[in-house]
Each structure stands twice: as structure tokens, then as C-alpha cells.
Amino acid sequence: MGGDEAALGEGAVELLRFLFGDESRPKIVHDLKQLVILCARYGLSFGGKVTDTMIASFLVDPNKCIPHELYQVAKEYAQ
After folding, report:
1. Separation CA 36–CA 46 (nearest Å)
2. Does the global pTM surpass 0.85?
3. Cβ(49)–Cβ(75) under 8 Å?
């Protein structure tokens, strides 16, 4: 953890720990699985409601926007 945290910066890790852990703040992310894997390296976890736009896109129409990348979802639904 020491090397990874040093690369990101201890201040950044602590800020993210506060923001991600705050149960009163809803989080909207794209590809939550990859973010959770990355955050685990730094000992970060999520508190409160988390919405994943990649999963939401899949649930709306599994055959549209394959493979549901952020640029595809934004182009399709944020017009």
C-alpha cells in the first residue's frame, strides 16, 4: 500500500476516503466494478447510495451501446 498511496498522494487518498465514505453523498459512477478494485488498493470503500451508469445502460437495453462504455452511453442518452 505504501508505494501506491505515495503515487496517488496521501492527501488525495484521505480526501477520497472522506468523499467515498460519506453516506449522505450519493455517488454516480461508471463501471463501479473497476473503481471498487482500484479503491481496494488504497483501502477505500463506499458508503451510501452508489449508482452505476454502466449497469443502468445495460438494464435499459442490453443490446444497445455494447460494451456500454462511458462515451457510448453519454452519446446515446445525454443528448
Report:
1. 8
2. no
3. no
Task: Provide the Cα torsion 55, 43, 9, 33; round to 10°.
Answer: -10
Decide if 20 contacts 46 (C-beta within 8 A). yes
DSSP one-letter string for the chain: -HHHHHHH-HHHHHHHHHHHH-TTS-EEES-HHHHHHHHHHTT----S-EEEHHHHHHHH-TTSSTT--HHHHHHHH--
| pLDDT tens figures, 34-46 | 999 989 999 999 9
- CA-to-CA dists, residue 70 to 30, 50, 73, angstroms: 7, 16, 5
Q: Determine contact, residues 13/42, Cβ cutoff 8 Å.
A: yes
